[in-house]
Amino acid sequence: MAEIEHNGTTYDVDEDGFLAAGLESWDENWVSYVQTVEGIPEITDEHQSLIDTLQEYYKKNGIAPMVRILSKTTGFPLKKIYELFPSGPGKGACKMAGLPKPTGCV
Asked: What pLDDT digit, counting tens, does each position of 28-41 carry?
């Protein structure tokens, strides 16, 4: 297991850079780290809305939502989600939200 240090906090991550402990170790500093590596200049209310939606869905269902469900729930078209998270909803958004790496099509 790898470790990442950001602003004085160390995180255990899997081979793809997702939090090994998931939401248990998620915090705002993690958001800052992913923002940096993803090249997102500013976390907006739209970013936060997606993060919140992903976390709520995961807590209820134990998996990340499919893209269609994410789009429907947030009201953001897929194009907008990719504008917010250029690496996509699975890699960028789920990683930022502290979810495990999705196994299917997110």
From this structure: 999 999 999 999 99
Under DSSP, is residue 1 helix (H, G, I), strand (E, B) or coil? coil
The CA distance from 9 to 59, in Å, is 24
Which pLDDT band holds residue 106 (cuts at 50, 70, 90)?
Answer: very low
Fold category of 2-97 in CATH: Arc Repressor Mutant, subunit A (1.10.10)
Global pTM value: 0.92
Instruction: Please state the domain extents for the chain.
Output: 2-97
Secondary structure (H, E, C), 31-88: HHHHHHHHCCCCCCHHHHHHHHHHHHHHHHHCCCCCHHHHHHHHCCCHHHHHHHCCCH
